[in-house]
Amino acid sequence: MVLRGGGTRSDLGRPPDRADLSLDLRELAGIIEHHGRDLTVEAWAGTTVAELNRTLRPTGQLLPLDPPFPERATLGGVIAAGEPGIRTVPGARPGDLLLGFSAVLADGTRIRSGGRVVKNVTGYQLTRLFTGSLGTLGAITRVTLRLRALPEASRTVVVPLPGNDSAAEFADRALAAAGAATDPEALAIVPPGTGLPGLPENGGFHFAARFAGLREEAEAPVDELVRRAGGAHETLEGSAEAAFWSGARDFSPAVPRARSEVGIALRGPEAGVLRTAWRLASLGPPIVYGTQRRALASFPPASFPRALRLVAREAGVRMEVQTGPPGFQAAHPVFTPPLPQAVGALSRRIREALDPAGVLAPGRTPF
User: Fold this and answer.
1) CATH of the domain at 48
2) Gap between the terminal Cα atoms of the chain
3) Which pLDDT score, from 0 to 100, does residue 203 have?
4) Sign of the C-alpha dihedral, residues 110, 115, 116, 118?
5) Cα angle 160, 161, 165; round to 5
6) Helices (H), 186-340
7) Residue 30 — φ and ψ, nearest 5°?
8) What is the DSSP letter of 4?
9) For helices 167-180 and 270-280, angle between their N-to-C axes, nearest 10 degrees
10) Residues near 72 by Cβ (< 8 Å), separated by ≥ 6?
C-alpha cells in the first residue's frame, strides 16, 4: 500500500516494488486547534500548507515552510518528505517545526508522539524517524507544528554573477557574498532558462538574498554583499519578490517534470556543492540554496553518466535522484555514492519494528 497526499514529492527515494493500493489522505483536512499565544497549531495531516497559512494570516502568524506547490502540498506529506524549503534561518525545516504527531501503523495501531508545548520532548526520537520516512513507517493523520510571526517587511536583492568565472571562482564569489549578508531569511543562486515565472530567462547565474522581519532587518545594508557578488543589483519587493521565490521554491520538481528530465539533489560541503552545480550547468539548469549545503539540478536522462562523473570530482558531495522519467529510478542508483550498509541495516530494522509485514511501500528507500 502506498500513502498519498498532494503528490508533489511522490517520486522521492527509490520507488516501491509494489503498489497494490493507494490511500489518499487529503480528506483529513482542517485546523484542530490554534494556540496563538504559544505560536503552535494542531491540524489534520491532509491540510495544505497554503490553506493553513491563509487561515493563519489574519492572526499575524505563519508556518515557515516552503514546499514546492504549497496549494497541493499537505502537512503530512511535507513531514514525510522531510525536504528543507528555501529558508536559511535556523529552525525552518520540517523536523524543526514538528512538535508532535499522530499516525496509524500498517496493522491499524494508533500512535502519538510529542505534544503542543514547545519544551515537551516526549517521543522525540519517533518524531524524528517519521520526518523524511516517505510514508514507509505509518500514515501521519494529525500534526502539531511550531509557528512564527509574519514579517513586518521583506525585500530581495538580486545580483547578476560574472559569466566568465571558473568553478572555483564561482564558488568563492558565492561564499563571499553569502558571508556579507546580514541574517538573510533566504539565499539562492538561480540559473537562467528554467521557464519558471519570476526567475531570469537570460544571462548567467544570479545571486539572491531575501531579508525579512522587522523593517530595519529588511532594510539591512547590502553594499558589501553586492560588491562581493559582482556589482550591479536589483531590488525586488511585493509581487515581483513573491514570484521570484515561488520560482526558486518550485524548481524541483517543476523543471525536471516539465522537460521529462532527471531531477537530482546535491548535498555536501558548501564549496564542493557550488563547484559541482557550476559544472552540472553544462548539462542543464542547477539552483543552489545558499548556506544549506544543498543544490538541485535538471538534465536529460542521457547525461546521467556524465553527471555521475562530475559529482565524483568533489570529495564529500553526494547526489540523490529525486525525479525522472517513468522507470528511471528503478533502473539507476538513487544515491551516489551508495549509502553506508549500516544506514540500510538500521532503516530495515526500524521498518521491521513498525511494519513487520512490509505492507507500506515495500522496497521504497527513503534513506
Assistant:
1) 3.30.465.10
2) 19
3) 85
4) negative
5) 160
6) 215-218, 223-229, 238-259, 270-280, 304-312, 328-331
7) 125, 160
8) E
9) 130
10) 6, 7, 8, 48
CA separation for the pair 181, 274 (Å, rounded)? 17
Looking at the structure, do residues 129 and 180 belong to the same domain, yes or no? no
Spatial CA neighbour of 44 closest among 55, 31, 54 = 31
Question: What distance in Å separates the CA atoms of residue 270 and residue 272, rounded to the nearest whole number?
Answer: 6
- Give residue 118's pLDDT: 45
Residues counted in the chain: 367
Torsion of CA 326, 244, 187, 59, to 10 degrees: -100
* Overall number of domains in the chain: 2
- Residue 319 CA, chain-centre distance (Å), reads 15
- Looking up cell 538573510 gives 184
Helix residue ranges, H only, 184-237: 215-218, 223-229
Closest CA to 257 of 346, 317, 164, 195: 195
Q: In the chain, count H helices and then E strands.
A: 12, 18
* Whole-number Å distance between alpha carbons of 262 and 323: 6
**Cβ atoms of residues 332 and 321 within 8 Å:** yes
Q: What is the DSSP string of 131-150?
A: TT-TTSS-EEEEEEEE-EEP
Cell matching residue 183: 541574517
Q: Are 303 and 311 in contact (CB under 8 A)?
A: no
Whether residues 85 and 165 share a domain: the answer is no
Distance between CA atoms of 162 and 132, rounded to whole angstroms? 37
121-175 per-position pLDDT tens digit: 444 478 889 999 999 999 999 999 999 999 999 999 999 999 899 999 999 999 9
* Domain that includes residue 219, residue range: 153-331
Question: Low-confidence residues of the chain, pLDDT below 50?
Answer: 117-124
pLDDT at 124: 43
DSSP 208: E
For the CA atoms of 276, 278, 279, 285, the dihedral, rounded to the nearest 10 degrees, stands at 110
